[in-house]
Write a structure and sequence with these properties.
The complex is a heterotrimer of chains A (412), B (516) and C (224). With 412 residues, chain A is of the alpha/beta class. Chain A has helices at 11-27, 38-52, 68-84, 101-114, 133-141, 143-146, 181-195, 208-216, 226-240, 258-266, 273-280, 283-295, 302-317, 334-341, 348-361, 373-411; strands at 57-61, 89-94, 123-129, 173-177, 199-203, 223-225. The longest helix of chain A has 39 residues, at 373-411. Helices cover 77% and strands 2% of the residues of chain C. Among the domains of chain C are: 1-69; 79-145, no CATH class. In chain C, strands 1-2 form a two-stranded antiparallel sheet. The chains are: A alpha/beta (412), B alpha/beta (516), C mainly alpha (224). The interface between A and C is large, with 57 and 49 residues.
Chain lengths: 412, 516, 224
Amino acid sequence: MKLESIFDVDRRFVFVGIFLALLIPMLVPYPLPCKPNKDVENMYIGIDDAISRGKKIFLSFEYDPTGAAEQEPMARAVMRHIFSRGGKAVIMCKSGGQQGQEMHQQLLADCAQEYGRSYGADYCYLPYKPGSTNLVINLGQSLRSTWPQDVGGTDLADLEVTRDVQRLADFGYVMIICSSLTTVVDWLTYGQGPYNLNMGFGVLGNVTPDVANYTNSGQIKGLLGGLIGAAQYEQILLDKGINLMRRFSPADLASAHMVSFCSRLSDPEADGLGRYVWDALSPATQAAVRDVIKEGYDNLNAAAKTDIAAALNRVIMRTDVIPDAELSKAKPGHQVASLLDGQLKERAPQILRRLIVEKEFGKALVAAQSAGQAMTWMTPQSIAHVVLIVAILFGNACYLYDRARRKKHSQI
Amino acid sequence: MNRHPGFIAALSLVLMLPAARSWADPSAPADAKPLPGTTYDLSAESLTGLGLQAMDKPNDNGTGIMLTWPRQGWEAPNALYQVLMGDDLAERLDALVDLKVIDAARRDELLGQLGAGPGQKRLFWVQETLASERPKEGSAVAPPMPLRSDYPAVFGFKKENDGYHAIEMIKFKRDDLVLHIDRETNDETRKLVKEVEARGLVNQIVPLGEGETTKVDLKQFSDAPKHDRTYYFALQRVEAGVVTGRSEIASAVPKDNWFAWHKLNLLIAMFVLGIIIMAFAWIARRNPTGLFIRRIGGLEAVDEALGRAAEMGKPVFFCHGPGDLSAVVTISAINLLGKIAERVGEYGIRMKVTCLDYLVMQVSQEMVRDAYTRVGRPDAYNDDDVFFVTGDTFAYSAAVSGMMMREKAGTAFFFGRFGSESLLLSETGAVTKAIQIAGTDSFNQIPFFITTCDYTLIAEEMYAASAYLSREPRLVGAVKGQDVVKAIMMTIIVVGAVLVTFGFMGFAHLFWPLTN
Amino acid sequence: MRFFKFYLPISLAFAMAILGITSVFVPHHYSDNFQKETVVWFRVLGGVTMFIGAYSLLKVHFNRIRRQQKGWGYSALLYAFFITVITCAIVNYDTATGKSKGPLEARNMATKDGVNWIFNAIQRPASATQYSLLGFFICSAAYRTFRAKTVEAAVLLVAALIVMLGQVPLSATISGAIPWMSNWLLNWPNMAVKRAILFGICVGSVGTSLRVMFGIERSYMGGD
């Protein structure tokens, strides 16, 4: 039998192999550190610089559930960065993102809650509008004639965040999260070129090499390419302690442990933090929490989750629940402790309170300093790549062995 | 290639033409009245004699003004420049008094709100606060004031540009007037509103609310400069929050331009390249013999692929990508479809054309119908075979993959612009063992097509396809012209790379936006 | 009829091309307005042809059902969904008021009406599934085709393996050289080739546009 026939194996076997290589490491999350590359660092610096100059950031979310696995972590990381620095952002949605509007708004609300920002003053969302090239051209000329109103129907002139911006050139940094090269080229041709914008992109992994064309030429200042780009940005947030500054948001409620979390909260015998959080919940949320125990996690709607997060935030924002004397209970790890001694010194009490709350509720709450979604997902991807490489090498070894054998036979 | 040096010399000569033009002289009226709302210290060193110039930004649609002045000896990271924009608001208020829209008391009241002294003609607002120099390390207290060399499209590549500051004013923040009036009340108000609008006296006119009378108010506006209106500018130096000097006032009028002179090189290049391509087409028409196009495997294989489908009695699939008619490659794909449909008609096989765009579907239907008619098989045409599937790419790939699997496609063509659906379609085709020929200019999809298809037309081969298949002399000639254009471009790139490497930038600058 | 079939379309194509090119070189606000206007026309045209597209789709599937061709069940399903979605959109149920708003009122993207449910529960997961299939297809295509048959193919294989490994953080833990090499391959040799192809595409586009503009390329109008 020829060994090289291994190449003609039914492709379904390849599919199963890759599926297992992805699935198994997903069950045991083990985030790997990701060293940020220059393009990712440039984006971080670009956004940071714009905010420090008091300029606003313009973002276009052009992703939907199809590409969300790669692009939602990008959006989340960038929004966390902006909000943590007190930056203000205008977010729009254009073709490619029309099916993702709800998730965009949820993500923005989550990030805003994490850093105590509010809609209208710190950010606003401009709903989906059809058109691509013409939309970019119009935005260059006038933001308000393109979008007279935001998603809630408020005039942009009446929103604090858009009051003094007229067009794209007024923003300090423009970041586009999109999935096709055509869109990137549109933005560069009709946005970056004419108005000399500081522009960065977050694109899907398979388009990254093509978009990289424009980073070398200097037209793009910052690029997040695929999941690894998002993971690298998350790494920066970890290193700079931006994650640590977070308060709680619905995204921090780990769904796998919500049933035990809810039963802990609604336990009439409970005291301490659990009792405090329970009392802070609205009656509707309390009812929803009770339902979770009976009927499962799906009963917890977005409003209830936001309410729970808000109740948890009351704990970390106030000094009467956990007095300063008890902050030593937090016992932060080495990296967190060094951040608290350094750049996060002013925020240390709030961060320590969060650590105490996290400890209290165990796995039900996502830790502030835990690795992001993209970093966690990079491990299965790494393993899948290695499996594929091994398979290709093995196939080639078989092929070369066959060829050597054939050569030997023909010589005889 | 003998004409080459001559061509470059001619190009350089023409490109130097705009150098003959000069800036419109910025007028700088000596209107140095105190500015409102600032702590102007009269004993401080004055910036008079700074040489501030305001000018209409050239080559634009009349919405940009450039300010420029020489760098000063006292500049330091913590010495800030403030750019002030002045308005004729006081003059406009006087005009409104003349028109009896408001009385003199209201004018003084409004001016008082802005902190303006009596009799003051112009009011100024701070637009930008910028550091005069960027500090070596860390974030600046304010962004640094740009230099002329940051705007090569306006000031060119002169070395001395580093010695001048420059800033483009494309947006103003200021208090402006809002007129509350019901314009349709009577002839008088109609006339009044018309007059106010024509003279641009107020920024906004709003209808009256319940129980209100005609009045003029102030409101914060953020505006772009309007063409043919005069704007006034001044600069002040701020140190530790205190204004320590102020410049003279400069003014400029933004003008609409009828030609973008900085794109002249582009226009010339376009004409030259266009003429070369068209000349080759013309020569080929006069002398059609001896035109050679190299063999393109993918196109040679079209007949073989169709023949195989005919032998096996299987249908042919022609898949358009998600590109619309504004993409040149879609036009090429449609041209190819016509040629392929002729052969399909001759062989008497069935071809399905799947479309993702309604307009593309319309044109494709016409194309296939005409092709069948040309080969004498109008009866073979069926509207149902050229159809719109869906506008969503993934739904499209699911639907077409399903059809290819069920109907066991014999041959599949993927021509046009493609995204990630390319691999979904062609991998499915590979499973049905169809002969697959793809052609696209989406270069990120080319590797996927190469791995899964039998033949792939890479980018420009696609554009040459209709010439290749029809052998029409003018088309072939135009393709030859394209090759010559490419040869010229390659020569320019090599020459440019060598010159730039040795520090001669002049040649490279010919291909940048031109300036005076 | 040669006028309508030939001269008129060619003249229109030529005139619009000249206007389009002119607007690039004329920055005047008249040219801005012209660009804005053409965009509106294009949208109107797109809106009208959408009906033609929907008609074509329904006709094709109607014939399939009528002739009971192979797989006609799918066509029936298409009709079922088409009618359901259209009905839901016409009813335009608003959960906030609990009333139907009718087809002429704008739909609310936030409410849990039928169209949104179909979007969220069917279309979203279906498109995500299609997209994620891509990962499996890439693996299967790579596995089948990466074979070191010649020296060139071997070079390609080695480069591919380096890039594949360089794209995941694991490579940095093995050696810092791998991501560096991967980036080098992507940024230099790969970029050079891509730019060369891009030049070809641009010249080809200009050539094709000129051929269409001057009526040399007429096959899009059904040939001569």
